[in-house]
Design a protein that fits this description.
The chain is α+β, with helices and mostly antiparallel strands. The chain is built from eleven helices and seven strands. Helix content is 43%, strand content 14%.
Length: 275
């Protein structure tokens, strides 16, 4: 891995240079330090500065995989998992990736429920078609879109946006009113399906983030959505379930899907270019 493969955040703080990088060992730290000294300081100062330089390693990704294509080739739909716990810091990064996902008009019309309780997962197993990933996962995510777009929900989003940006409500009034008018044209069922599409963008990004972490993430349908909504009391929250995602570690000894070749349709049938 070269210096260009690292995510570098270089700052000056007092007399010290703070380097934040995804370097994973002492050798890479040393290379980073040599690079910075050579880049920012004349030869006469390098030895002195080197002794005063403070290096901090921030593990943004605890993996050598920074190539998204390689990561996605590594992943597959794990059908069996070991039940081992995924470290919380990794889960947090996967969830943050989903949180940062784009959505229509920035509304983020969904929530993600995170289930770790083993007994709760056992109760969910028959609702989820007895798919074993439910109970063998470390974390089970439920993607729960809004059951409808309402002026109250839309206003809450834009009020929060204005507060965080420190802007007046008039700044976003045009976009706010567009959203309220647009979704008022559709039925609750149509709006739910629109919200579900937004949730599934986040799901896809979470799958990719997990692959970069060398963690298995299996999106799952094949569950009784109505029963799941009742079990989790989602209707009272104005939510409905649309997808599950099991996060954990593949069971290499028992997963029949692991040794199978990854197959996709020919790219010529998948991608059409208009020139």
């Amino acid at each position: 891995m070269t210096i260009t493969d690292w995510l570098l955040d270089i700052r000056f703080h007092n007399a010290n240079l703070l380097l934040t990088a995804t370097a994973l060992n002492d050798e890479k730290q040393e290379k980073a330090l040599i690079f910075i000294n050579a880049t920012f300081y004349p030869m006469s100062m390098r030895n002195t500065i080197r002794q005063r330089t403070f290096i901090k390693i921030k593990h943004i990704m605890k993996t050598d995989i920074l190539d998204i294509t390689e990561a996605l080739n590594w992943r597959y739909a794990a059908k069996r998992m070991t039940g081992a716990t995924v470290p919380q810091e990794i889960i947090d990064r996967i969830l943050e990736a989903a949180w940062l996902a784009p959505s229509g008009i920035g509304l983020q019309p969904y929530e993600i429920l995170v289930i770790t309780n083993p007994e709760l997962k056992k109760q969910l197993l028959p609702i989820a078609g007895n798919q074993l990933q439910v109970v063998e996962s470390s974390h089970l995510l439920v993607f729960a879109p809004w059951n409808d777009y309402t002026p109250e929900r839309i206003n809450k989003v834009f009020d929060h946006l204005n507060e965080q940006r420190g802007t007046s409500s008039t700044t976003s009034d045009r976009q706010r009113q567009f959203a309220i008018n647009y979704f008022s044209k559709f039925t609750s069922e149509e709006n739910f399906h629109h919200a579900a599409k937004q949730a599934h963008i986040a799901l896809g990004i979470a799958v990719a983030a997990a692959a970069l972490e060398r963690v298995d993430a299996t999106p799952m349908e094949g569950f009784n959505a109505k029963a799941l909504d009742e079990f989790l009391d989602l209707r009272s929250k104005g939510l409905r379930s649309s997808m599950l995602m099991a996060i954990g570690y593949r069971d290499t000894a028992n997963d029949w899907n692991l040794p199978l070749k990854k197959v996709r349709k020919p790219k010529s049938e998948f991608i059409t270019l208009y020139r």
